[in-house]
Protein backbone atom coordinates (compact mmCIF):
# COMPACT_ATOMS: atom_id res chain seq x y z
CA UNK A 1 0.00 0.00 0.00
CA UNK A 2 1.40 3.38 -0.98
CA UNK A 3 1.36 6.12 1.61
CA UNK A 4 0.59 9.70 0.63
CA UNK A 5 3.27 12.34 1.11
CA UNK A 6 1.26 13.73 4.03
CA UNK A 7 1.22 10.32 5.74
CA UNK A 8 4.97 9.96 5.21
CA UNK A 9 5.78 13.32 6.80
CA UNK A 10 6.56 13.86 10.46
CA UNK A 11 4.99 17.33 10.22
CA UNK A 12 1.65 18.67 9.00
CA UNK A 13 1.54 20.47 5.67
CA UNK A 14 -0.20 23.85 5.64
CA UNK A 15 -2.60 23.24 2.74
CA UNK A 16 -6.12 24.24 3.68
CA UNK A 17 -5.17 25.71 7.06
CA UNK A 18 -2.95 28.57 5.90
CA UNK A 19 -5.12 31.34 7.32
CA UNK A 20 -5.57 29.59 10.67
CA UNK A 21 -1.79 29.25 11.00
CA UNK A 22 -1.25 32.89 10.03
CA UNK A 23 -3.79 34.15 12.58
CA UNK A 24 -2.00 32.13 15.27
CA UNK A 25 1.35 33.60 14.20
CA UNK A 26 2.69 30.20 13.12
CA UNK A 27 2.89 31.05 9.41
CA UNK A 28 4.28 34.35 8.08
CA UNK A 29 3.11 34.06 4.48
CA UNK A 30 0.76 32.13 2.20
CA UNK A 31 0.75 32.05 -1.58
CA UNK A 32 -1.66 30.66 -4.12
CA UNK A 33 -1.52 30.42 -7.90
CA UNK A 34 -3.76 29.58 -10.81
CA UNK A 35 -3.86 30.12 -14.53
CA UNK A 36 -5.24 33.56 -15.31
CA UNK A 37 -8.27 32.13 -17.12
CA UNK A 38 -9.24 29.86 -14.19
CA UNK A 39 -11.96 31.25 -11.95
CA UNK A 40 -11.88 29.04 -8.85
CA UNK A 41 -11.08 30.30 -5.34
CA UNK A 42 -7.45 29.33 -4.83
CA UNK A 43 -7.71 29.91 -1.09
CA UNK A 44 -10.24 27.12 -0.70
CA UNK A 45 -12.77 29.53 0.77
CA UNK A 46 -10.51 30.78 3.56
CA UNK A 47 -11.55 34.38 4.37
CA UNK A 48 -8.18 36.07 3.75
CA UNK A 49 -9.84 39.24 2.43
CA UNK A 50 -11.45 39.92 5.80
CA UNK A 51 -8.02 40.00 7.44
CA UNK A 52 -6.59 42.14 4.63
CA UNK A 53 -9.46 44.62 5.07
CA UNK A 54 -8.90 44.80 8.84
CA UNK A 55 -5.17 45.45 8.35
CA UNK A 56 -3.99 42.17 9.90
CA UNK A 57 -2.61 40.85 6.58
CA UNK A 58 -1.02 42.34 3.48
CA UNK A 59 -1.94 41.13 0.00
CA UNK A 60 -0.03 41.27 -3.26
CA UNK A 61 -1.06 39.95 -6.67
CA UNK A 62 1.48 39.38 -9.42
CA UNK A 63 1.62 37.65 -12.78
CA UNK A 64 4.22 35.39 -14.32
CA UNK A 65 3.98 33.75 -17.70
CA UNK A 66 4.57 30.01 -17.62
CA UNK A 67 7.02 29.79 -20.51
CA UNK A 68 6.63 26.02 -20.86
CA UNK A 69 2.85 26.19 -21.32
CA UNK A 70 2.70 29.73 -22.75
CA UNK A 71 0.03 30.61 -20.17
CA UNK A 72 -0.04 33.44 -17.68
CA UNK A 73 -0.20 32.52 -13.99
CA UNK A 74 -1.71 34.80 -11.36
CA UNK A 75 -0.15 34.57 -7.90
CA UNK A 76 -1.95 35.88 -4.84
CA UNK A 77 0.24 36.16 -1.75
CA UNK A 78 -0.65 37.18 1.78
CA UNK A 79 1.76 38.07 4.56
CA UNK A 80 1.63 39.14 8.14
CA UNK A 81 2.40 42.80 8.79
CA UNK A 82 6.18 43.39 8.69
CA UNK A 83 6.66 40.17 6.68
CA UNK A 84 5.92 41.72 3.27
CA UNK A 85 9.55 41.23 2.26
CA UNK A 86 8.79 37.51 1.97
CA UNK A 87 6.40 38.18 -0.90
CA UNK A 88 9.05 40.06 -2.87
CA UNK A 89 11.55 37.23 -2.46
CA UNK A 90 8.86 34.67 -3.31
CA UNK A 91 8.07 36.57 -6.52
CA UNK A 92 11.76 36.63 -7.40
CA UNK A 93 12.24 32.90 -6.96
CA UNK A 94 9.12 32.21 -9.02
CA UNK A 95 10.60 34.33 -11.81
CA UNK A 96 13.94 32.53 -11.52
CA UNK A 97 12.05 29.24 -11.49
CA UNK A 98 10.88 29.90 -15.04
CA UNK A 99 14.40 29.04 -16.21
CA UNK A 100 15.29 26.32 -13.73
CA UNK A 101 14.27 24.91 -10.37
CA UNK A 102 16.51 23.44 -7.71
CA UNK A 103 16.49 21.96 -4.25
CA UNK A 104 17.81 25.27 -2.93
CA UNK A 105 14.93 27.26 -4.46
CA UNK A 106 12.48 24.69 -3.06
CA UNK A 107 13.98 25.17 0.43
CA UNK A 108 13.88 28.98 0.15
CA UNK A 109 10.23 28.78 -0.90
CA UNK A 110 9.45 26.54 2.08
CA UNK A 111 11.19 28.87 4.51
CA UNK A 112 9.30 31.87 3.13
CA UNK A 113 6.04 29.96 3.65
CA UNK A 114 6.87 29.17 7.27
CA UNK A 115 8.27 25.66 7.20
CA UNK A 116 11.31 24.92 9.36
CA UNK A 117 14.66 23.89 7.88
CA UNK A 118 14.08 20.35 9.17
CA UNK A 119 10.65 20.21 7.53
CA UNK A 120 12.12 21.50 4.28
CA UNK A 121 14.88 18.92 4.31
CA UNK A 122 12.33 16.16 4.89
CA UNK A 123 10.22 17.53 2.03
CA UNK A 124 13.26 17.52 -0.28
CA UNK A 125 14.08 13.91 0.64
CA UNK A 126 10.52 12.82 -0.17
CA UNK A 127 10.29 14.91 -3.34
CA UNK A 128 13.53 13.66 -4.84
CA UNK A 129 13.00 10.10 -3.61
CA UNK A 130 9.85 9.94 -5.77
CA UNK A 131 11.48 11.57 -8.79
CA UNK A 132 14.60 9.41 -8.66
CA UNK A 133 16.79 12.53 -8.65
CA UNK A 134 19.50 13.19 -6.11
Features:
alpha+beta; 3-stranded antiparallel sheet; 40% helix; 6 helices; single chain; 134 residues
Task: Give the end-to-end Cα distance, rounded to a whole number of Å.
Answer: 24 Å
Mean pLDDT: 87
Q: Give start-end ranges of low-pLDDT stretches.
A: none
Shape: globular
Largest sheet: 3 strands, antiparallel
Helix content: 25-40%
- Report strand order across the widest sheet: 1-3-2
Number of helices: 6
N-to-C SSE series? HHEHEEHHH
Topology:
Blueprint: H1 5-8, H2 18-23, E1 29-35, H3 48-53, E2 57-66, E3 71-80, H4 85-96, H5 103-112, H6 117-131
Antiparallel strand pairs: 1-3, 2-3
Helix pairs in contact: 4-5, 5-6
Structure report:
The protein has 134 residues and is α+β, with helices and mostly antiparallel strands. The chain has one domain (5-131). It contains six helices and three strands, in the order ααβαββααα. It has helices at residues 5-8, 18-23, 48-53, 85-96, 103-112, 117-131, and strands at residues 29-35, 57-66, 71-80. Strands 1-3-2 form a three-stranded antiparallel β-sheet. β2 and β3 (71-80) form a beta hairpin. The longest helix has 15 residues, at 117-131. It starts with a helix and ends with a helix. The relative contact order is 0.16.
Amino acid sequence: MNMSHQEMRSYKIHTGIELELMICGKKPMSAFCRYIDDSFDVTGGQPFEHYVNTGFLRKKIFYIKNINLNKKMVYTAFSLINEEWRIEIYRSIKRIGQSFWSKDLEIIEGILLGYSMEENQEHIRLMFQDSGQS
